[in-house]
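re: the backbone from monday

yeah here it is again, tokenized this time
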């Protein structure tokens, strides 16, 4: 059991040991590293609970059949549009989007639409766009959108096309087991 924990958290353990060694060598850098890590943890702890509540509600309230109809394999442009819309109105940092993936997989959402959703979360968030317009101007924002929107859609199709079918099936079955 301990061996499994060590294997599972090896990256964290290696990082912790590295920071401890750095702290021994240079206390100021080590303390600053721990402060940054604590700040990041606090931010994550404040963002994830509301996301988990929304996920639970989405899992219970939205029937699988509806998600499959509007964002599933036969959803076409409507599924892409919904994925972009949901990703664009989302709030929070990118890591807050990752818990949505298993729920979307369980609901039968087409994998390319999941990738589109994730990319839209990163690139087209309304809060970011409003800041961008005020800081860089609407011309820049419009040009970026004209480049990014097709890129988001192409990325979704490309990832689905490159992903082996057996790995996609395994991904969907693992999500069902969760």
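seq for it, each position gets an aa:
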């Amino acid at each position: 059991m301990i061996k499994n924990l060590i294997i599972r958290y090896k990256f964290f353990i290696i990082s912790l040991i590295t920071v401890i060694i750095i702290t021994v060598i240079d206390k100021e850098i080590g303390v600053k590293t721990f402060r940054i890590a604590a700040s990041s943890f606090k931010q994550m702890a404040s963002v994830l609970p509301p996301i988990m509540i929304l996920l639970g509600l989405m899992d219970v309230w939205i029937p699988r059949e509806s998600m499959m109809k509007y964002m599933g394999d036969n959803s076409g442009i409507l599924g892409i549009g919904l994925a972009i819309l949901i990703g664009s109105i989302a709030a929070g940092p990118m890591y807050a989007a990752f818990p949505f993936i298993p729920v979307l997989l369980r609901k039968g959402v087409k994998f390319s639409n999941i990738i589109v959703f994730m990319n839209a979360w990163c690139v087209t968030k309304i809060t970011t766009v409003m800041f961008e317009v005020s800081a860089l101007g609407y011309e820049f924002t419009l040009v970026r959108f004209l480049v990014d929107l097709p890129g988001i859609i192409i990325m979704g199709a490309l990832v689905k096309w490159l992903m082996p079918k057996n790995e996609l099936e395994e991904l969907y079955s693992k999500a069902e087991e969760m």
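The chain has two domains: 1-50, 62-177. The chain has ten helices and no strands.
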